[in-house]
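Quick one:
INPUT:
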């Protein structure tokens, strides 16, 4: 913790941003750090061009002008909001470190979080993505990418949660991961997911020459390392380029929820499956036994939409 100063906020803005980024690099994921590095670099550049060299020179009027500047860049509302969240987090850190007594912003100075606009994929688009996995360099990589699509579609998990899965989760058919905010969340797999994962693991063992232990990361990359969140992002970037379908992990989440609801799943089940529950909503989670959740998720799985209709 910093010592109190008689002239708070007189530190160089450049040096404070560098110190804050060092904290993020130590305590947060690489993607979080890279995002903050870029967005705060943009903020630092704007401040320099507008005569803000030290923190005490920043006020609400300048913050609102910076938001106007971001809106003028042609970015989406979600992107502008994301950039502003990083600046707000930096200013909050300055208060926590006693660099400032109070935040220099007030409610309404930064834009509110925009309402989401889900863009779910169609079953035909999903099948096209699955078919595109066949062009991977190695059979085990093709099987891995296909298995990931199955898991993402069935469970609706986030990218960070997918990266947390362990090999031992496959036999249990459930994976307990940590969500944003430190909440524990159970991911339930169904039989189709397990079959695809086992096929991937079998081909991986044949190619790499060793069995993975239950506590090792499930998703792997060459030469024999856990697949990172950034690596997962790159996989779907490549699939987007091959198919012309703009796809990312969160779009699978939107698709999973939409197809599951259209298959007759209750909103309570979908909320539980996605982990969308506040502390007060945990009672609804408790009301559903784990076996019922797994059964209902299997019965309403979006994977069923990929199967051709049975002939009469």
């Amino acid at each position: 913790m910093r010592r109190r100063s008689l002239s708070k906020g007189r530190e160089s803005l450049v040096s404070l941003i560098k110190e804050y980024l060092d904290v993020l690099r130590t305590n947060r994921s690489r993607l979080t750090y890279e995002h903050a590095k870029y967005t705060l670099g943009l903020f630092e550049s704007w401040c320099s061009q507008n005569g803000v060299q030290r923190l005490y020179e920043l006020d609400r009027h300048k913050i609102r002008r910076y938001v106007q500047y971001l809106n003028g860049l042609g970015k989406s509302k979600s992107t502008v909001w994301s950039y502003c969240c990083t600046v707000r987090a930096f200013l909050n850190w300055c208060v926590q470190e006693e660099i400032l007594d109070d935040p220099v912003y007030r409610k309404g100075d930064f834009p509110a979080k925009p309402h989401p606009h889900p863009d779910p994929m169609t079953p035909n688009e999903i099948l096209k993505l699955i078919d595109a996995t066949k062009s991977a360099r190695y059979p085990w990589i093709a099987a891995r990418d296909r298995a990931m699509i199955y898991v993402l579609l069935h469970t609706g998990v986030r990218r960070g949660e997918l990266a947390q899965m362990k090999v031992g989760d496959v036999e249990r058919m459930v994976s307990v991961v940590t969500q944003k905010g430190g909440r524990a969340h159970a991911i339930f797999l169904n039989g189709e997911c397990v079959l695809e994962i086992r096929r991937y693991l079998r081909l991986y063992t044949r190619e790499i020459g060793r069995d993975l232990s239950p506590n090792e990361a499930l998703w792997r990359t060459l030469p024999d390392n856990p697949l990172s969140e950034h690596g997962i992002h790159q996989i779907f970037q490549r699939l987007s380029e091959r198919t012309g379908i703009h796809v990312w992990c969160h779009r699978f989440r939107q698709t999973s929820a939409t197809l599951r609801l259209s298959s007759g799943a209750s909103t309570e089940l979908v909320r539980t499956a996605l982990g969308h529950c506040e502390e007060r909503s945990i009672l609804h989670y408790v009301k559903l036994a784990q076996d019922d959740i797994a059964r209902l998720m299997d019965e309403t799985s979006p994977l069923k939409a990929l199967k051709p209709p049975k002939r009469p």
